Amino acid sequence: MPVYTLYCPDCEHRFKGMVMAKTEPPREWVCSQCGSRRAAPAPDATPERHPWEEKHGGGCPCCG
């Protein structure tokens, strides 16, 4: 499950967004601070792995 660092150009808020395993990232991200629909993955950040994937080795235990 990749975790993206997202950036909103309208309010300059940076926040995290997770995409569930075996799904596509959304076409449109919504800013968690101002509600703008122009948020996008930050150009200077690469997707990270969900921290529980590393610890448990078989995916997130809460998601199966």
Write the layout of secondary structure elements.
Blueprint: E1 2-7, E2 14-18, E3 40-41, E4 48-49, H1 51-56
Antiparallel strand pairs: 1-2, 1-3, 1-4
Describe the overall structure.
With 64 residues, the protein is mostly beta strands. It has a single domain, classed as Rubrerythrin, domain 2. The chain is 9% helix and 23% strand. The protein is built from 1 helix and 4 strands. Strands 1, 2, 3 and 4 form a 4-stranded antiparallel beta sheet that branches. The radius of gyration is 13 Å and the shape is globular. The termini are close together.
Total DSSP E strands? 4
The biggest beta sheet reads: 4 strands, antiparallel
Task: Compute the average pLDDT.
Answer: 83
Shape assignment: globular
CATH domain fold name: Rubrerythrin, domain 2
What portion of the residues fall into strands of 2 or more residues?
15-25%
Note poorly predicted spans: none
Which CATH first-tier class would you pick?
Answer: Mainly Beta
Q: What would you say the CATH architecture is? A: Single Sheet
Radius of gyration: 13 Å
What's the total helix number?
1
SSE arrangement, N to C: EEEEH
**Residues in helix, %:** under 10%
Structural class designation:
mainly beta
Instruction: Please give the alpha-carbon distance between the first and last residues.
Output: 12 Å
The figure for the number of domains is: 1
